[in-house]
Design goal:
Helix content: 40-55%
Shape: elongated
Strand order of the largest sheet: 3-1-4-5
Number of strands: 6
Radius of gyration: 20 Å
Distance between the termini: 66 Å
Largest sheet: 4 strands, parallel
Length: about 140
């Protein structure tokens, strides 16, 4: 015990360093969302529908193959036309994941209980070296 009291600064530095090393894992776990690999599995196994909530010009510059473009502002009115079957998983995507997280609330409100967000958005998709197509 005397070691801890005499070297409190070292103990504090060790505790803070440990916390900073653990933070990325904790933050990723609480942010939720689906990894790119998980999204590919969901698309292949359960025929998930990918909905890109970016604006049309962003969508044209690059998107996941087979994705349907429904900007966040139009989601309330257009999503039921794009994804008629509410029991099929819905993967919401945007450039970074922020707009898709907002869109998740709208989709859940419309009854899409299997809606999920691609964590990290298209950036994570690109970082995983997964293919994009351009319109």
């Amino acid at each position: 015990m005397p070691f801890l009291t005499h070297n409190w600064a070292l103990v504090l530095i060790a505790a803070v360093s440990g916390g900073l090393l653990l933070w990325p894992g904790i933050a990723a776990g609480t942010a939720g969302g689906l990894t790119p690999d998980g999204a590919v599995q969901l698309i292949n196994r359960e025929k998930a529908i990918v909905v890109d909530v970016c604006e049309a010009d962003e969508f044209a510059s690059g998107h996941i193959r087979g994705a349907r473009n429904v900007p966040v502002g139009d989601l309330q009115t257009r999503l039921p036309d794009v994804a008629k079957n509410k029991t099929v998983p819905l993967i919401l995507v945007c450039a970074s994941g922020a707009r898709a997280r907002r869109a998740l609330g709208v989709a859940k409100g419309l009854g899409y209980d299997k809606a999920v967000v691609l964590a990290g958005g298209l950036k994570a998709w690109r970082d995983a070296n997964l293919p994009l197509e351009k319109a």
